[in-house]
Design goal:
Structural class of chain A: alpha+beta
Number of strands of chain A: 15
Oligomer: heterodimer
Order of helices and strands of chain B: HEHHHHEEEE
CATH architecture of chain A: 3-Layer(aba) Sandwich
CATH class of chain A: Alpha Beta
Order of helices and strands of chain A: HHEEEEEEHEHEEEEHHHEHEEEH
CATH topology of chain A: Aminopeptidase
Distance between the termini of chain B: 72 Å
Number of strands of chain B: 5
Chain lengths: 323, 211
């Protein structure tokens, strides 16, 4: 009897009377083992189940920033009529005449701007060279003299210039896959090779160049051409922004293309910062303004005379206004 | 009586062996369970066990790099190979400053902000929560990285990297006195190569728990 009353957990020398408690103990251990398996299984639950048990260490946050640059940047973009072998244009890009001239004034704080398009035949004073067509300034003294001519004409300090050629423009547009432009008239210009219908469309490299060059068949002549050049520039900005919004690495693609196709005095860090800033400047916030002008003549040559409205525009810009 | 007793003794002996096996199995199982919940050696002593913590790994950025070099420069493959180590080091520095060393909140943010280009530094300072542990740092005792991966597109200038776009993903477990939880970073960093190394010129970043 005493053995029957021995505790179940007693030593190994237990007799026949302990058979029952031994099995109870065995079943107990099996149960414990089963429980152990359940416990052991819990850390191997799916990750989602684990996450549900974890605490929230940090709430969700999102943020973005582009460079903060000085308040206003003025950039002169120049299209040269030389240095374009694909179009049979020899010589150096810097030594040609400046046939496309846009002055970009960008308010980096308000993220707004203006593109002033100048007729290439604008008859203006050129430092050290009397009065002549503005496009001759680069042929006389390279981009530096052209910049000096613009600074004297507008009274605006110009921070940088960017220069390309017919080849450069067509290559840029081709490499970025075309630019969206709202073509504002039907064009059948054999001289420039522009055959376009009115309406918003994607222009390829040659079409973009043709649209920017067509003049002879346009009702407004040089005035219309200047506006179209500004449109192509802003179309490029819009295309850049759309592409970068889809794939931020496109910034590098565009900069690589500019590196290969554009000559500029913009130091690379500034070019990158400007490109990053440009991703956040809505194209609708940049006005395309053809500089008020009228066709005329000087010394028997066809020229364009800037009108008083042009000088009023320059004065407003000098005062920090963008319209 | 003896037979049953002997029989009983034999049964008891078998049960004892079974018990011993079962006991050993249970003990091993329990030991296994315990080690599974035991804090990682890298964590501070006495830290609450994490129910969500995968094993910690040393911080190492897995980087995939492509490059855009000038037509007359290095091949794209060679340019990518050359740029990768420097970028990897930079991203390692960034994640270390933003998360690993930020734990405890005593290191401050100067080290992290030193990795930003000057024209974007003020914006970064205001958005530390989207770039790092941010305001959560003081309550975090340790950050245990699990995954750090990046894809970079590097732009070459004159035979040297000039800029890069990096997509960065970082997952880790952060330990606090209340328990542990996951922290995540998903960023697009626009980098500028300077004389002092890479600097962040623009960013688009988010942090927080997994969705």
């Amino acid at each position: 009897m005493s053995r029957r009353t021995r505790p179940a957990g007693a030593g190994a020398g237990a007799g026949a009377g302990r058979r029952g408690p031994a099995w109870i103990a065995a079943f107990g251990l099996v149960a414990a083992l089963a429980a152990g398996l359940v416990v052991a299984g819990s850390p191997r639950q799916p990750a989602d189940a684990q996450s549900a048990l974890a605490i929230t260490v940090q709430r969700a946050h999102a943020g973005s920033a582009t460079p903060t640059l000085k308040r206003r940047i003025v950039l002169l973009t120049i299209g040269s009529d030389a240095g374009a072998p694909k179009f049979g244009r020899g010589g150096s890009v810097e030594g040609g005449r400046a046939d496309a001239l846009q002055l970009i004034v960008l308010d980096t704080v308000k993220r707004r701007g203006a593109v002033l398009s100048f007729p290439r035949d604008s008859y203006v004073p050129i430092p050290g060279h009397g009065t002549n067509k503005i496009n001759a300034a680069m042929a006389f003294g390279g981009p530096r003299l052209l910049v000096a001519t613009f600074e004297r004409l507008t009274g605006l300090p110009i921070d940088y210039y960017a220069l390309t050629s017919f080849d450069g423009l067509t290559d840029i547009v081709t490499k970025v896959g075309g630019v969206q432009v709202n073509v504002d008239m039907n064009l059948r210009d054999t001289f420039a090779g522009a055959f376009l219908d009115k309406g918003r469309q994607k222009l390829n490299g040659r079409q973009a160049l043709a649209y920017a060059r067509a003049r002879k068949t346009l009702p407004g002549g040089d005035f219309d051409r200047s506006r179209h050049q500004g449109q192509v520039l802003l179309g490029g900005l819009g295309t850049f922004q759309r592409q970068v919004a889809q794939d931020p690495a496109k910034v590098m693609t565009w900069l690589a293309i500019l590196r290969d196709e554009v000559k500029t005095d913009l130091p690379f860090p500034e070019l990158l910062r400007l490109a990053l800033l440009a991703t956040k400047v809505p194209a609708s916030g940049i006005r395309n303004i053809p500089v008020p002008s009228v066709a005329g003549s000087a010394g028997g040559a066809s020229v364009v005379h800037l009108q008083p409205g042009a000088y009023a525009l320059f004065a407003r810009l000098r005062a920090g206004k963008l319209s | 009586m003896a037979a049953p007793s002997n029989s009983g003794l034999r049964l008891t002996g078998s049960a004892g062996a079974a018990l011993a096996v079962l006991l050993t199995a249970v003990l091993l199982l329990v030991a296994g369970c315990t080690s599974g919940d035991r804090p990682e050696p890298s964590g501070p002593a006495g830290r609450p066990a994490s129910t969500a913590a995968p094993p910690a790994e040393p911080l190492r950025v897995q980087l995939v790099t492509t490059a855009k070099s000038p037509p007359d420069g290095l091949t794209a493959k060679r340019a990518a190979q050359r740029a990768a180590p420097g970028l990897e080091r930079f991203l390692d520095r960034y994640l270390t400053a933003a998360f690993v060393e930020a734990a405890g909140g005593e290191a401050g943010w100067d080290g992290l902000l030193g990795l930003f280009d000057k024209p974007v530094k003020a914006s970064a300072r205001k958005q530390l929560d989207a770039l790092s542990l941010g305001a959560a740092a003081p309550k975090v005792s340790a950050v245990r990285p699990h995954r750090a991966s990046a894809r970079a597109v590097v732009l070459y200038g004159d035979r040297r990297p000039a800029a890069a776009t990096v997509r960065l993903a970082f997952d880790a477990t952060a330990d606090t006195a209340q328990g542990s939880g996951q922290v995540h970073l998903r960023s697009v960093l626009q980098l500028l190569a300077t004389g002092e190394g890479w600097r962040i010129a623009a960013f688009d970043s988010r942090t927080g728990p997994p969705k």
